[in-house]
Design brief:
Blueprint lengths: L3 H38 L10 E10 L4 E10 L4 H16 L15 E8 L22 E7 L1 H6 L4 H18 L3 E8 L17 E2 L1 H4 L7
Parallel strand pairs: 4-5
Antiparallel strand pairs: 1-2, 3-4, 5-6
Length: 218
């Protein structure tokens, strides 16, 4: 005969085992449902990219000091600031190879941000740092181009090569965003006296300087 207390203990253990089995089954089903829900919420298509459009870049050439337009097809976002950054990124990518007509290390990642602000009268002061948010503007615009410190540090020094870089950026911005009439430059978010010892970065550059001029060498 099995003692009564052993029967009672066996019954308790059996009930506990059944309850644990039911609990584990429910936990397994819940985890399975979460997995299915996660798969359903995952994107089934690749993220959409900006459509390719024709962009005009004013490309510098050190051999004759020229700025010559080149048309390239590249993805251009609808947002004007992002659009400006995209075209300048492509321009600096053209300068990155050592055998480029205007070799400057860094490439497109050297353009950290481009901010578009209402253009002030020529010769007046503007904020040295961009505002936290860009606002829609309808009149002439000032583009504030924020370059990386590594780009400025590695840029070849010389009045002509630095001026070619600055004017090619100004001309490229105006060619693709015609309302940009002035350009200022920051380096790592702050004002810098020169690009690499010569080109003045404390002033605003009128884009009209590059609109109808293909050569900057006098």
């Amino acid at each position: 005969m099995i003692p009564r207390h052993q029967k009672l203990l066996f019954g308790i253990l059996l009930a506990a085992s059944l309850a644990m089995g039911v609990t584990l089954w429910h936990l397994r089903e819940r985890a399975h449902q979460r997995l299915i829900a996660g798969q359903d919420s995952a994107p089934t298509h690749a993220p959409e990219v900006a459509p390719a459009e024709q962009a005009t870049l004013l490309v510098a050439n050190d051999s004759d000091g020229s700025l010559l337009p080149q048309v390239h097809s590249l993805p251009l976002p609808a947002d004007p600031g992002a659009r400006a950054r995209a075209v300048l990124g492509k321009l600096l990518d053209l300068y990155a190879p050592p055998d480029a007509a205007h070799p400057v290390p860094g490439g497109g990642s050297s353009v950290l941000q481009v901010f578009l602000l209402p253009a002030p009268p020529i010769g007046t002061g503007v904020p040295a740092s961009p505002p936290p948010q860009e606002k829609q503007q309808t009149g002439p615009q000032l583009a504030v181009v924020n370059l990386s410190g590594s780009f400025a540090a590695s840029h070849p020094s010389g009045i002509e090569t630095e001026t070619l870089t600055v004017l090619s950026i100004c001309g490229t911005l105006h060619a693709n965003l015609p309302r940009v009439t002035q350009v200022r430059f920051l380096v790592d978010g702050v004002e810098r006296p020169t690009l690499a010892g010569h080109a003045d970065l404390t002033r605003a550059y009128p884009t009209a300087d590059t609109v109808s001029t293909e050569r900057i060498r006098q």
